[in-house]
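BACKBONE STRUCTURE TOKENS:
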Amino acid sequence: MTFEEYAGRYYVLMHDDPDLFAEMVEYHADYFMALYGPILERGMRFEFVYFFEDCCFNTGPLFSPGISTSVFDRLYRKMIRFYKERGVPLALVDSDGNVEKLAPLWLDSGFDIVFPLEIG
């Protein structure tokens, strides 16, 4: 399966089985906190945490702002709080494409930096 085929199935899953999709996203959030928690608790310091959310195209997001709010927001807040409580001062979200519809939601979730790489 190519990456494009996988990504297409992932985005369709949001609509076909929203409960499974939400469970998958939460699993990933918990995984990263379990992975980085011991490192941070042993004194390793980072200047920022980097979220790679390549979820926008040149015309806008690949999913609705409503999905961002209903699925991702709670987990972004949980993860950002987790990292900041362990001394990571900044949370950065990166997405290629036109992020105009999602950037305000990301800032509301607690991100300090929105880093769009390419909008052309």
Q: What stands out?
A: The mean pLDDT is 89. The first strand starts at residue 48 and ends at 52.
